[in-house]
Design brief:
alpha/beta, LytTR_DNA-bd_dom, OB fold (Dihydrolipoamide Acetyltransferase, E2P), about 30% helix, DNA-binding, 5-stranded antiparallel beta sheet, 8 helices, about 30% strand, Rossmann fold
């Protein structure tokens, strides 16, 4: 029998902890190895058990979930577990993702949303060499390893909300940030454009150049310039130049 994904729950609310444990038990590829009700216990159990997947409440007695994760990172004694934060407050979302959280469940959340977070987390479970069987199990559990990204968290006027990827018109980047355009607004995301490139549906999103990806659903036209490079006109009026290789491929694909 293949090794299951070792899972730890750190949650100080009894009802929430019980619900998480019940949902974990319903997924045959997960194995619950410990439940903790405070941050200090969670830190000790993570160090002792080296779980591959962690559900971590942010507001806990002793240490917050963010403090637990920072402590593990600072002391380099964590096991690169995938962490799914659970909280009733959305103001910690950016801090959570800066700590490379796999997902962020805002209470109250449904079992469907829980299962979605697990699937997302298990696509990128990374374990130590001594736990390579867990990596293999994670890969088997996450069959859709290359499935497209469906939404991202963006910030606007102090609020954080999920933006459906289908609504993204284009992405432009500099060294550290990516500007994500949608419905007349641009949202700065603290990730390079390469972080999105492999997760976007290639049937819909086209990389025009190193720093620009467009959603073909929002392209109005493509017109060659004097150098035979295509000028891509977007619905919002933005214009981008496809590099020579992309321009050539697009011309060859045109009917």
């Amino acid at each position: 029998m293949s090794t299951r994904i070792t899972t730890l729950i750190a949650e100080d609310e009894p009802l929430a902890s019980e619900a998480l444990a019940e949902w974990v038990a319903q997924l045959p590829h997960l194995e619950l190895v410990s439940s903790c009700a405070d941050g200090l216990s969670a830190l000790a159990e993570i160090r002792r058990l080296q779980p591959a997947l962690i559900f971590m409440d942010i507001n806990m007695p002793g240490m917050t979930g963010l403090q637990v994760l920072r402590t593990l990172a600072e002391n380099q004694d964590g096991n690169q577990a995938r962490v799914i934060f659970t909280t009733a407050y959305d103001e910690h979302a950016l801090a959570a993702f800066e700590l490379h959280a796999a997902d962020y469940l805002l209470k109250p959340f449904t079992q469907e949303r829980f299962n979605e977070a697990v699937e997302h987390a298990l696509r990128s479970v990374v374990s130590s060499d001594s736990n390579s069987s867990t990596v293999e199990a994670a890969a088997a559990a996450a069959a859709e390893d290359n499935s497209p990204l469906t939404r991202i968290l963006v910030r606007d006027q102090g609020k954080i909300f999920p933006l459906q990827v289908d609504a993204i018109e284009y992405l432009r980047s500099d060294i550290k940030y990516t500007a994500v355009a949608s419905a007349g607004k641009q949202y700065l995301v603290r990730l390079p454009i390469t972080s999105f490139e492999q997760r976007l549906d290639p049937q819909r999103f086209l990389k025009l150049q190193r720093s620009c990806i467009v959603n073909l659903d929002f392209v109005v036209s493509m017109t060659p310039d004097e150098n035979s490079q295509l000028i891509v006109q977007m619905q919002d009026g933005s214009r981008f130049t496809a590099n020579r290789d992309v321009s050539k491929k697009l011309r060859e694909q045109s009917i």
